[in-house]
Amino acid sequence: MNYPTLEDAVGKTPLARLQRIGAADNATRNNIILGKLEGNNPAGSVKDRPALAMIKHAEERGEIKPGDTLIEATSGNTGIALAMAAAIKGYRMVLIMPEDLSIERAQTMKAFGAELLLTPKSGGIEYARDLAMSMQADGKGKVLDQFANFDNPRSHYESTGPEIWADTHGKVTHFVSAMGTTGTISGVSRFLKEKNPAIQIVGAQPSEGSRIPGIRKWPEAYMPAIYDPRHIDQVTQVSQLDAEDMCRRMAREEGIFAGVSAAGACWVAQQLSQTVRDAVIVFIVCDRGDRYLSTGIFPA
């Protein structure tokens, strides 16, 4: 008998209907809002899917083999997922991340055996991305490059999108996702649009001056190569204050303990719900709230 491995635990995450947040308006308009609980993945986020996919397909193409060094610039969740995937597959993992990200994320990466290289806060993730490519050019390892690696959206096209379609019995009318690397929204939107072109795809981006971990509005020079705007119908801005408030509300009112980017997508889903009727709106709950405890978002 072939028993499952940890890889087999990635994906197949549940949908959970919001019961209290916006309940009156949703009932009046006959809308249902569903969160896809990606924090249920083994390493705790939606990034488990592309992390394993990028390594798996790179191995199939002969680009890497166990024992090699992998390098990646990350703002957090991809780094944790890659650290887990590298531990499963037998790689040395070097992660480059800005120094101002939460201590829980850094500690979790180290727990999986990854090596961390912290970069100045002032340089942001853009500096970390440049440094990763420079290290690859110097022969220090292979950059999987979540921002330009089409195995990232492919993983969502092959798993996340089909799960949403199946679990809503094809009744999903709107899909909302935070936009970071844009892998999730690009992959899911492509699948859902193939099933039903009328499904509306909405991205969540931070408003001017807002810092929301996991959501970015990229400078043109750093726009992820995997971003495919053809299947995205609308991009909605969410403020840091609104996202953080929704983060606390999700925990208190729904029992969904999630991060700020997930809350930003939830806020956008709620705004969307006020403009439509008879809708089934699915948003991505990208990770869990326990990796944000040190940031002060949640009450002490």
From TrEMBL:
Task: Name the pathway it acts in.
Answer: Amino-acid biosynthesis; L-cysteine biosynthesis; L-cysteine from L-serine: step 2/2
Q: Which residues are involved in binding pyridoxal 5'-phosphate?
A: N77, G180, T181, T182, G183, T184, S261
Q: Name one GO molecular function term.
A: cysteine synthase activity
What positions does the domain Tryptophan synthase beta chain-like PALP occupy?
Answer: 7-287
The text of the family note is: Belongs to the cysteine synthase/cystathionine beta-synthase family.
- Designated name of the protein: Cysteine synthase
- Signal sequence, renumbered to the chain: none
Which EC numbers does the record give?
Answer: 2.5.1.47
Task: Provide the cofactor list for this protein.
Answer: pyridoxal 5'-phosphate
Modification sites for N6-(pyridoxal phosphate)lysine: K47
| Keyword Transferase in record | yes
Sorted alphabetically, which PANTHER family does this protein's record hold? CYSTATHIONINE BETA-SYNTHASE
Which domain of life does the UniProt lineage start with?
Bacteria
What's the short name of a Pfam family annotated to this entry? PALP
> Is Transferase a UniProt keyword of this protein?
yes
Show the Gene3D superfamilies listed in the entry.
3.40.50.1100
Matching entries from SUPFAM superfamilies are given as: Tryptophan synthase beta subunit-like PLP-dependent enzymes
Query: What gene is behind this protein?
Result: cysM
A Gene Ontology biological process in which this protein takes part is: cysteine biosynthetic process from serine
Q: Which reaction does it catalyse?
A: O-acetyl-L-serine + hydrogen sulfide = L-cysteine + acetate
Which UniProt keywords are given for this protein, alphabetically ordered?
Amino-acid biosynthesis, Cysteine biosynthesis, Pyridoxal phosphate, Transferase
InterPro entries, A to Z: Cys_synth, Cys_Synth/Cystath_Beta-Synth, CysM, P-phosphate_BS, TrpB-like_PALP, TrpB-like_PALP_sf
